[in-house]
């Protein structure tokens, strides 16, 4: 029974080659669109998670702020619900950190020549609970209570993070919309292709019925044919996207400033899983559509 369905499905596909090629092309374009949005959503989502792990707010104290005021400020900021961790980096610690790199050493030498001593400032390194907490901490530090303590403006990446969150939201919305569109396109294309195929073989189908062919025996080749359309389209999408991911990863590494193999491997795995999920979804849609289309047009 299975062998008959597989062989019959391949024969049907070859018999109606140009119709099959058209169907596969349409499905490939639809599936590629879904895979592209899924990949984009994966990259943006991964970026936001990396910010959750790495982002911090740096607030530099003015030179004339007393240590007692600094200690009080630290205690108050630690009590903020959006602050995951608060760390004071003294000017001496900052100098040591700067001296760990060649560029930092040169910068220190230049500063000494111009100003002498240690012109660096004490600062707070505040780790938010997540990217959504980042803007709340910025707003808290810019309140009148603390505003006079800081040297210059606090570095603000709210707009950048906000834009990422909007992109992530709309890629998810767009992805869902494309999945729905893809499903509808698949249903319409395969239903009509199978209707044409069944109509062209109606005499053969009638003979199979007369000689006692079961419903499953008659329907099997058409269901496998419908699945083949999506399987072939999925293979084409995989051939396009798998090498593309390898080419995209170096750019993503540079964009996200990721240098460890752990993060890179995690991103690659997530992107492959998103592509695999898209392919599996396409194949399932093909099988289900073929089943109901044959049930309707064969009247079995």
Textual characterization of the structure:
The protein folds into 2 domains: 2-51 and 161-297, no CATH class; 56-155, Alpha-Beta Plaits. The chain has a 3-stranded antiparallel sheet. Helix 2 packs parallel to helix 10 (215-256), helix 8 runs antiparallel to helix 10 and helix 8 (158-200) packs parallel to helix 11 (261-297). The chain has 11 helices and 3 strands, in the order ααβαβααβαααααα. The protein is mainly alpha-helical and 300 residues long. It has helices at residues 2-15, 17-54, 67-78, 91-99, 102-114, 131-141, 144-147, 158-200, 202-210, 215-256, 261-297, and strands spanning 57-60, 83-89, 123-128.
Short recap of the structure:
The protein is mostly helical and 300 residues long. Helix content is 77%, strand content 6%.
Query: Approximately how much beta-strand content do the residues carry?
Result: 5-15%
Q: pLDDT below 50 for ≥5 consecutive residues: which ranges? A: none
User: What's the number of helices?
Assistant: 11
Tell me the helix content: over 70%
What's the overall geometry?
A: elongated
Number of domains: 2
Rg value: 30 Å
| Straight-line N-to-C gap | 17 Å
Instruction: Kindly report the average pLDDT value.
Output: 75
Widest beta sheet: strand line-up: 1-3-2
- By DSSP, the count of extended strands is 3
